[in-house]
Input
Amino acid sequence: KAGVTQTPRYLIKTRGQQVTLSCSPISGHRSVSWYQQTPGQGLQFLFEYFSETQRNKGNFPGRFSGRQFSNSRSEMNVSTLELGDSALYLCASSADGSSGNTIYFGEGSWLTVV
Amino acid sequence: LAKTTQPISMDSYEGQEVNITCSHNNIATNDYITWYQQFPSQGPRFIIQGYKTKVTNEVASLFIPADRKSSTLSLPRVSLSDTAVYYCLVGAGRTGGFKTIFGAGTRLFVKA
Output
């Protein structure tokens, strides 16, 4: 079956703009989580959604937000972009986020802020 | 959440077996251990997951001692294409969802 799908794969934005990234989880998966990966900070957890509700949140400013739709698809939004937001944004899905679940990652969305 | 510690980098040669150990001293009772492989500019790819003792699949084996405070990923007969970063993840799934913490990972260099 299809894996986790993220769009767009690459994008360039200007400082101060906002961006929306999209994620379609594996069919049947209801938990979706988002990560930011940069060379300096590694893989950092942003938030997790389950049944359209944010269930867990990492240590990121309020400019980073997300949502999940009834079909489990998810979007994340970054407002007022800063140069430091340039990163690979990864989406991952799992069945329901419980113990023993495996997290499967998408290929990511490369965001460059200029 | 259990913090993980792995070697920063490892070198190997084609055809050799590679063992990467991850320490997770404060692993919780319900935590599973999962290993991922990541190539540049790609998302992490699931390799193997286990809870205790030994798990084997078509690409790797995972050894977990009885105290579960560490785990070892074993890659048999590596090839150049196995050059990547390997991450150990503990306790991703919990009641109430997960809030994952990735370590720095281990950069494996496979030489010809």
